[in-house]
Structures are given as C-alpha cells and as structure tokens.
User: Which sequence fits this backbone?
C-alpha cells in the first residue's frame, strides 16, 4: 500500500520537475563523487533495511499468514486454508470478535468526544492570559509521561480498589464495588454485546492520560494564532463562542489532522492497560485478541492471530493513507512555491 | 504564554490595552480560576493517592479507609516492592535496552532524514512515506511474524540467555530502533528541510564530503530537534510494555515497565504495595519530564507542527 502512495507522489514529482527553476534544486546523488556515493547509500540503506525488515516485512507476512493454518513450529506444517481463519472468527469466535470490535469503536468515539473536546477546552482556557498557566499545564500533562500500564496499575490500587479505592469510598455507599471485574453491560446492543461496566472504568483511566496529550497539541496550535485575528473578532463584536468557532478553530486545522490521526491510531493500538488490568472478560480489544493467539494457552495460532492483525491493519489503513498523502502532497507543493 | 491576550470581547480588549501586565479580576476570571483549580486538583488525585498510599501500611488503609488522616509513615512498601520485584535488576535491564536503542534511533533516523531532506533524488519522498506510514502501524500487526522471525535467529550464549534473538536484549533494541525511527525520521526531515539550502552549496564549494556536511554542519544545527526527540523517545522506549511482554517472556529479564505484568499477580492482595511498585516505574519518567519539560513539549509539537 505504501508503494501506491509513493508511486503516485514520485510520478507527480517527476512530472512537475521540469517547471522548477534549476538553481533551486539540490544536487542529485548521481552527481556525487565515488566515496560520497557509498556513504549516501549506507546512510539510507542500513536504517531502511532494518525498518523494512522488522516493520514492513512482518506486516506483509501477517496478511499472507492469515490465509494459512500455521502453528508457528515448522514451515512444512503450513497449509493454505483460504478464508478459513476469517470464517472461524465470524462463527466460532463471533462473540469475542464483535465484542472486541465494539470495544475498539467505543474507545475511538469516546476518545473523540471525551478527551479531545475536553483537552481542546482546557487548551482554550489556558491560552487566555492566566496566572500560573505553566503550573496548570504541568498538572494536566503529567499523566501523559506515564506508561498506560502504570496508569492501569495506579488506578487499580488507588481509585478502583474493591474495598479501599477512592471511587469505592466516594460512590460505593459503604459497600465494596468491583469496578474492574463487573462485566455486566451498562449499555447493551442485543443480548450478547454491549459496553461493559469494567470497560468504562478503563476508559476513564485512559481519558485521564489522553486529555493532557490533546491539550498540549492544541495549546501549541492556539499560540500560533495571530493575535490581530482575535482582536478583529473582538472589534466586530463576536461572542466568545463565535470567535472560537469562526476565527480560532479554522486555524487549528493542521492540529485537528494530527489529533485525528493520533486518536485513531491510539484507539486501535490500545493494549497495555487492558492487558495489565487483566479483567476477566468483555474488555478485550482487537490487539488483545491478536496477542492472545501468540502468548499463553491460546498460543501458536499464527494463522488466526494474523487474521486478527490483518483486520486491525485494514481498519487503520485508510487513515494512514489519508494522512501520509495529505502531508506529502503539501510538502511537495511547499517545496515548489 | 503570558504574552497572548484573550481578546475575545471588546471589553476585554480595551482592558488589555490599558493594563498589559495585569489581568482584571472580573467574575468570569474568578470562575475560570476556580474551574481550573478544581480540575487540576481532581487530575492530580491518582498520582497523589498513589504516593500517599505507598507510604502507609496497608492494614491502616484497610482499617481506617483511604481518606483518613495518616497515623503512621512507613517505607516498608517500598522495601518490600524493591526486594520482591527485584527492581534494581529491572532498572538495569531497562538501561541496557534504553541507552543503545535511543542512541541508534536518533543516529539512524537523522541519517535517513538528512539524505531525504537535503538532497533531491528519485525516491526521497518514497522513503519518507515508508518511514512515516511505518510509524503509524499498530504494533500488534507486526507481532506474529516478528515473533517467528526472532525465534529463528540464533545468537551465541554470551549475547542471549535463550540462544535466540527472541528473549534477548538485542531483539528489543532492534525493534525499538526499527519502529521508533519512523517517527524520528519524519520529525527530523521536517526540521532539516527548513535549514538554508545554501549550506549544501557552501559545503560543496569548500570541498567538504557528504559525511562532513551531515555530521559537522547539519547535525549541530539540528540539535534542538534532537534534544526534543531524545526526551520524548526516552519516555516512549522506557514506557514500552508490549514489545517486552511478547519478545522477552522470561520475567527476570524484563525491563521495568513490562515487569508490571508479573507484579500485578504477585502483589494482588496489597494495594499499597502495588502503589509503591507503580511509583518505582513512574519515577524515572516523572523526573525526566520535570527536568526537561520544555524539550518534551517541543518534541510533541515538532511532530504536529507540520501536520
């Protein structure tokens, strides 16, 4: 897939090349002296070889392996089974699969309407002239430097502890509450699927970390908004909301793109906190299903694990292509002007 | 920060005009401060709670509740977590992975970024696209084949306890470098592109080789971006949980963050012990963050700026 984007950008590059003023151009590697040429190929070659071998080769292999029944032991055991893994996922493992897809989707939507909007709101407030703005920023940002695994661990012991957690003592009404073990659905879709209560507990912990991340990104964007724009909006008698909606928000477009990509990718990557809290069920996401087919009791199912991985890949593919083409199209235009 | 005027209403503007350095304390402002302070207070609770609990005997928390005034102060939780969790060994495991991985990531990605942003050749965009897209993939897409590849690469005994790349420190270093160089190449190429083009010409006229241009001209000028990335990558590699859980299955050899996967089961009955253990994991990143906050934020926004 990367090659398709790359090809199109490469052709457009060469198609436009003659129009460029020649003095603007950098030297081409083909003009290098002998030694420089070797250095150049090594500089690009070694890092690229490592990246391709450990990132892209496995990615493509996942697609291939998802059509086999390989157990990961001997290559001779590998059989081509067509779509069998996918069929099994949709029949035998139907419940796990759809619950995981729902959880991934809920996480994605939640990250957009929860931490993204709140993070943007905090950034907006901190962008006003505020005493101690740096202090507030530091507080909101601190969780971001913690691993999601640590976040899970911390929340488990401090907030969600069944008997002594702060959440239990505040909202439990004197009784113990099993925040992370409660698999019953708060919102159910049909008889078998829904959003379980323990998943929501995890979502809250994720939001605690994600909000600061978003806040920092938007804050950087808002700082670069030209002050004269705001002053003009103020003079025109715009309300606070109108000024934000029509003046500040449009200039944040590049940040919105980055936030959208980060949020989608984070929602699909989510793994650590769910794995570390190890709650009984109903909190699985696709990344957990992939890994379950590799580790522990369910291990050795390379075929099925790869099928889950391929589904994950297809889900993020669109965003990756959209972002990358968007970015490099702009870069090229920038280079030409 | 303080230089930005709110300027959202004419009134605010007029006031800002007359009192550049003083913010007027109108009711709206007071509401704002109250809101921010309460939110900040709520935000800090999980970390503060973990610190608080970690210095308390668990019996006391059970007896008097987590909200109660502390009667006793103890380091027992830290002592016990340190010994049972073998924390020193875990820190050492992390160091052995983190230092080479961080250095190599920055070195490799700066070379690719240099070649792709300072020279114009047929495939420079192709290479950048490859790295950028690679950095956006979820790790779980890669893991099944990667695990199988690692399982089939033998290493001599002095390099790996398992005799394979799988389960060795080397394997973790390699995947960190390969995976993280995606983001770093992206950021560094954006940064290097903004350096004046005339530098290349000047170096050529002086007869400097390509390596000299890279190492003695471009790299020193890229220092701010490198500092920002180093801070950011320090936390990302330190915080890695997934790679180590899958590719380093021997609990004793795991770096500190992923050893949480084992501690969770061992300490399950004692919340205050869990709190102390999570403080051990959190402290290095918190120190780095507090000391290098500026670089940290710069790293994130460098990646976002060129969106």
Assistant:
């Amino acid at each position: 897939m990367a090659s398709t984007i790359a090809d199109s950008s490469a052709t457009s590059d060469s198609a436009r090349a003659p129009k460029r003023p020649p003095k603007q151009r950098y030297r081409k590697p083909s003009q290098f002296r002998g030694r420089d040429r070797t250095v150049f190929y090594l500089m690009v070659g070694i890092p690229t070889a490592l990246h391709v071998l450990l990132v892209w080769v496995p990615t493509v292999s996942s697609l291939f392996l998802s059509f086999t029944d390989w157990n990961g032991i001997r290559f001779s055991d590998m059989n081509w089974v067509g779509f069998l893994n996918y069929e099994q996922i949709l029949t035998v493992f139907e419940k796990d699969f759809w619950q995981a897809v729902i959880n991934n989707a809920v996480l994605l939507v939640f990250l957009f309407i929860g931490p993204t909007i709140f993070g943007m709101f905090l950034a907006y407030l901190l962008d006003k002239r505020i005493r101690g703005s740096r202090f507030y920023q530091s507080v909101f940002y601190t969780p971001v430097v913690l691993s999601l695994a640590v976040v899970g661990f911390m929340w488990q012991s401090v907030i969600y502890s069944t008997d002594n957690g702060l959440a239990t003592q505040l909202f439990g009404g004197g009784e113990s509450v099993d925040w992370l073990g409660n698999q019953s659905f708060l919102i159910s879709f049909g008889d078998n699927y829904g959003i379980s209560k323990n998943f929501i507990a995890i979502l809250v912990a994720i939001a605690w970390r994600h909000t600061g991340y978003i806040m920092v990104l938007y804050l950087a964007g808002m700082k670069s908004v030209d002050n004269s724009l705001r002053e003009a909006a103020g003079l025109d008698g715009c309300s606070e909301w109108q000024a934000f909606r029509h003046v500040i928000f449009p200039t944040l477009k590049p940040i919105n793109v980055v936030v959208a990509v980060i949020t989608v990718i984070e929602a699909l990557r989510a793994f650590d906190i769910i794995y570390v809290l190890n709650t009984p069920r109903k909190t699985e996401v696709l990344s957990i299903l992939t890994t379950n087919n590799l580790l522990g009791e369910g291990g050795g199912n390379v075929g099925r694990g790869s099928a889950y991985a391929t589904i994950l890949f297809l889900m993020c593919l669109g965003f990756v292509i959209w972002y990358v083409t968007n970015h490099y199209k702009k870069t090229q235009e920038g280079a030409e002007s | 920060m303080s230089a930005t005027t709110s300027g959202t209403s004419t009134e605010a503007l007029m006031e800002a005009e007359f009192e550049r350095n003083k913010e007027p304390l109108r009711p709206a402002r007071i509401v704002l401060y109250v809101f921010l302070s309460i939110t900040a207070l709520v935000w800090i609770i999980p970390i503060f709670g973990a610190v608080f609990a970690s210095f308390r005997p668990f019996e006391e928390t059970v007896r008097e509740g987590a909200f109660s005034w502390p009667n006793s102060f103890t380091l027992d939780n830290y002592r016990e977590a340190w010994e049972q969790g073998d924390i020193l060994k875990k820190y050492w495991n992390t160091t052995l992975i983190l230092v080479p991985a961080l250095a190599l990531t920055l070195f490799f990605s700066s070379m690719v970024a240099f070649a792709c942003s300072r020279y114009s050749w047929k495939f420079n965009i192709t290479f950048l696209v490859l790295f950028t897209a690679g950095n956006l993939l979820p790790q779980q897409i890669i893991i099944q084949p990667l695990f199988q590849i690692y399982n089939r690469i033998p290493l001599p005994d002095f390099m790996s306890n398992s005799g394979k790349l799988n389960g060795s420190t080397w394997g973790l270093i390699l995947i960190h470098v390969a995976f993280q160089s995606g983001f770093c190449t992206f950021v560094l190429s954006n940064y290097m592109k903004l350096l004046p083009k005339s530098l290349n010409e000047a170096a050529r006229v002086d007869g400097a080789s390509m390596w000299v241009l890279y190492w003695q001209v471009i790299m020193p000028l890229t220092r701010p971006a490198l500092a920002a990335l180093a801070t950011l990558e320090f936390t990302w590699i330190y915080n890695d949980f997934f790679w180590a859980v899958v590719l380093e299955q021997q609990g004793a050899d795991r770096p500190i963050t992923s050893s949480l996967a084992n501690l969770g089961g061992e300490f399950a009955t004692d919340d205050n012990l869990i709190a102390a253990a999570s403080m051990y994991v959190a402290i290095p990143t918190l120190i780095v963050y507090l000391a290098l906050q500026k670089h940290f934020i710069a790293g994130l926004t460098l990646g976002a700026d060129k969106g």
Q: What stands out?
A: DSSP finds 14 helices and two strands in chain A.
